[in-house]
Amino acid sequence: MKSLIVTGFFLLFSSTALAVRPVHSCSGNLSVERNSSNFLVLRQNSREIGALRIRHQLTGGLFNLENSLLVVYGLPNQANPAHPQTTYLTLYSLDRKGPRMRRLLSEVFGSRILEIGFTEDNKSVYVNTRLGHGLIDIRNKDVAWFSLSEELDVKLQECSAENRARAF
User: Fold this and answer.
1) How far apart are alpha carbons 163 and 110 in whole angstroms?
2) Residue 106 maps to a domain
3) 92 and 73 in contact (C-beta within 8 Å)?
4) Within-domain flag for 120
5) Quick check: 2 pLDDT over 80?
6) HEC string of 53-102?
7) What CATH number should be reported for the domain holding residue 62?
8) Is residue 12 part of a domain?
9) CA 6 to CA 129: how far, in whole Å?
10) For the chain: N or C, fewer Cβ within 10 A?
11) How confident is the model at residue 99 (pLDDT cuts 50, 70, 90)?
């Protein structure tokens, strides 16, 4: 009886970890979601157009306004009790020709990610964690870290009515 209860408890939490809402582009025609086989599935107008293996869960993500970049983040697939707050972030390039998604970089953060965003100039990804702010230079793949007490003058892209009309 005890093993049945433990098995039921495990199944409840393992299925809950996979039940994450898809991430949608500002225009609404692109979305990604993680399936039960650890693939990040890219859809355009609900039709699958690409998939890549993902090394972490999908807690959140964001497309840039041009739908040319995608950043996603989440806990590791295999939880580590020694580092329960470790969060993985992966940046993908989206291409209209050939392969639909290409991994540009992966970073491991020692803290939970609270917020992400693309800068207005589309050159960096802003990452806000419990321990500080980070700016990832997309071209050079460098990460600059700032303490929580430091204010950053960074303008982030915003999804507006004008941007919602853009198509992939």
Assistant:
1) 33
2) yes
3) no
4) yes
5) no
6) ECCECCCEEEECCCCCEEEEEECECCCCCCCCCCEEEEEEEECCCCCCEE
7) 2.130.10.10
8) no
9) 33
10) N
11) low
Give the model's pLDDT for residue 19.
Answer: 43
Burial class of residue 88 in the structure, from the number of CB atoms within 10 Å of its CB (0-12 exposed, 13-18 middle, 19+ buried): buried
Is residue 66 in a domain? yes
Taking every pair of C-alpha atoms in the chain, what is the biggest distance, in angstroms?
59
Burial environment of residue 27 by CB neighbours within 10 A (0 to 12, 13 to 18, 19 or more): middle
Residue-range definition of the domain harbouring residue 32: 22-164
Q: For residues 126 and 140, what is the distance between their CA atoms, to the nearest angstrom?
A: 15
Q: Which of 131, 53, 52, 61 is nearest to 89 (CA)?
A: 61
How far apart are the C-alpha atoms of 128 and 132, rounded to whole Å? 6
- How many Å apart are CA 32 and CA 54, to the nearest integer? 11
- Token pair recorded at residue 127: 């990452």
| Total of domains in the chain | 1
- Rounded CA-CA distance 18/54 in Å is 13
> Phi first, then psi: what are they for 152, rounded to 5°?
-105, 135
Confidence of residue 161 (pLDDT cuts 50, 70, 90): low
